[in-house]
Amino acid sequence: GRFVRSARIFAFVSQHLAIRSMSRCHLLMRHLVQNPVVPWATRRLPLSTSVGKSMKAFGIKEKGGGVDVLEEFQLPQPALRSHDILVRVESCALNPIDTKLRKLTPPPGGFPKVLGFDGAGTVETCGSEASIFKAGDKVFFAGSHLRNGSNAEFVAVDERIVGSAPATVNATIASSVPLCALTAWEGLEQLGINPASTSGKKQSLLMLPGAGGVGCYGIQLAKLAGLQVIATASRPESEAACRQLGADHVVN
């Protein structure tokens, strides 16, 4: 189910959507730039110069809570399951789910918990049954909250929920795409709309907010499906962003 869907959706997004970027972390669509980009804040991690037995990671070690419980620590590089790939993380994104997991005691999978859901980077090595990607491939992904995440130098992720990174953007931009794009896609599917077809012709969609992380992909996917899109925006720059993404009408 999710394995096949995620890879298919990522491929579609890479090929058909304008991936838009934000100029400042935590302020969505604050300043729209011309080149493709992202919905949630991204953070670059320092990379090792070589693959070792341990790695730097960022997360919670003993208890959940506020931002004060976050710390950097050393962990063994993750062991690979048969369909896993080991990704050298170049960039990871911050999503609401990360703040929720940070507050849990214990978190899924127990302590220490490496946070981070979305990420982008380069395939380092592959599990025994992994066949989709090879070492050196550029990828992006939305991982699993049940496993350690992307706030680390390396992350193990099932290759069946991984996509080839968009060739037109860098890793910082690519890492912010997966979860927002998946949420937009699945939201449309729940309305009976297939973003990969013109199933929405003669229908209208209200997208609120239009310039948010999910909204910026929801507008584009809805337009590809043939819908008329009405987006909400409260600031002039948000309104401009919605129109540039394809919204037919924007209301405050």
Secondary structure layout:
Elements: H1 2-16, E1 42-44, E2 54-60, E3 71-76, E4 84-93, H2 96-102, E5 113-114, E6 118-126, E7 138-142, E8 154-158, E9 162-164, H3 171-174, H4 178-190, E10 204-207, H5 215-224, E11 228-232, H6 236-245, E12 249-251
Parallel strand pairs: 10-11, 11-12
Antiparallel strand pairs: 1-4, 2-3, 2-5, 4-6, 4-8, 6-7, 7-9
Care to describe what's here?
- By secondary structure, this protein is of the alpha+beta class.
- 23% of the residues lie in helices and 25% in strands.
- It contains six helices and twelve strands.
- Strands 1, 4, 6, 7, 8 and 9 form a six-stranded antiparallel beta sheet that branches. Strands 3-2-5 form a three-stranded antiparallel beta sheet, with no helix packed on it.
- The longest helix has 15 residues, at 2-16.
- The chain starts with a helix and ends with a strand.
- The model is unreliable at 21-51 (pLDDT under 50).
Give a short account of the largest sheet.
Answer: 6 strands, antiparallel
Number of helices: 6
Give the oligomeric state of the chains in this entry, treating copies of one chain as homo and distinct chains as hetero: single chain
- Give the termini distance in whole angstroms: 38 Å
Q: What are the low-pLDDT stretches, counting only 5+ consecutive residues below 50?
A: 21-51
How do the SSEs run, as a string of H and E?
A: HEEEEHEEEEEHHEHEHE
Rounded to an integer, what's the Rg over CA atoms?
Answer: 18 Å
Give the fraction of residues assigned to helices: 10-25%
Estimate the global geometry from the Cα principal axes.
globular
Mean pLDDT equals: 84
> Which structural class matches the secondary elements?
alpha+beta
Count of beta strands: 12
Work out the strand percent: 15-25%
